[in-house]
Amino acid sequence: MSEDKYVAGLRKNKDWAAQTAREHPDLFPTLANGQQPQILWLGCSDSRCAETSMLGLLPGDVFVHRNIANILHPGDLSSGAVIEYAVKHLRVKHVVVCGHTSCGGVAAAMGSKQLGILDPWLLPLRQVRERNLATLQKLPADEAAEKLVELNVRESLNVVTQKSVVLEAIQERGLQVHGLIYEVGSGVLRELDTSDSDETIKARLVAFKTEA
């Protein structure tokens, strides 16, 4: 019988802490005095998608918000507070929205089963599916799901770049916004082309940037 993962995790924590302290002697004392992450990561809660591990980075490098299917609701206070704190106060250099293959939330949005509290949560994803239904219906089921993963990342990026605090940071200090897809079957990240035209950027600034 395999060891309970919670029990194993507590046991291994001491080994991990000791090894990390040996390899990076200043890390934990530095983190005890505060954090200066360069990356805000907006990803999925899926247990296979641990951002610090897949990036090969250390504690303190990535500020994180994760939820079911990496969906960003425009009025969601949780993700909104994380984004504002990371951009305005921590002054991260990069904002990343990361989706992944074999996403259960995407699979649910591709289906028609009632899911209780998950139904209102998945609504933005179903709306993305509706807007792109003709394209998705031309694809085999697995390819359609992968396409919806990408479309969902792009939709969440739209939500991010409609926030005044993000637009201000892009304009004033060069904040960069990225879209990634994590390939669960290989462990490899794929970067999407998310560059916007000058016309799109100007329109967003006019429509969404506010002043104090």
Instruction: List SSEs in N-to-C order.
Output: HHEHEHEHHHHHEEH
Structural class: alpha/beta
Instruction: Please state the average pLDDT score.
Output: 95
CATH top level assignment of the largest domain: Alpha Beta
Rg = 19 Å
Portion in beta strands: 5-15%
Tell me the distance between the termini: 60 Å
CATH superfamily of the largest domain: Carbonic anhydrase
Q: Largest sheet, order of strands side by side?
A: 2-1-3-4-5
Q: How many strand elements?
A: 5
- Assign the CATH topology of the largest domain: Beta-carbonic Anhydrase, Chain A
Please characterize this protein's 3D structure:
By secondary structure, the protein is of the alpha/beta class. It folds into 2 domains: 1-33; 35-208, 3-Layer(aba) Sandwich (Beta-carbonic Anhydrase, Chain A). 52% of the residues lie in helices and 15% in strands. The protein has helices at residues 5-23, 27-32, 51-55, 77-89, 104-110, 118-131, 133-137, 141-160, 164-173, 198-208; strands spanning 39-44, 62-67, 94-100, 176-183, 188-191. It has a 5-stranded mixed sheet with strand order 2-1-3-4-5. Helix 5 (104-110) packs across helix 6 (118-131). It is globular. The relative contact order is 0.13. The mean pLDDT is 95.
Task: Give a brief description.
Zn(2+) binds at residues 44, 46, 100, 103. Keywords: Lyase, Metal-binding, Zinc. By secondary structure, the protein is of the alpha/beta class.
Keywords:
EC 4.2.1.1; Beta-carbonic Anhydrase, Chain A; Carbonic_anhydrase_sf; 212 residues; 52% helix; Carbonic anhydrase
Can you lay out the helices and strands and say which pair or pack?
Layout: H1 5-23, H2 27-32, E1 39-44, H3 51-55, E2 62-67, H4 77-89, E3 94-100, H5 104-110, H6 118-131, H7 133-137, H8 141-160, H9 164-173, E4 176-183, E5 188-191, H10 198-208
Parallel strand pairs: 1-2, 1-3, 3-4
Antiparallel strand pairs: 4-5
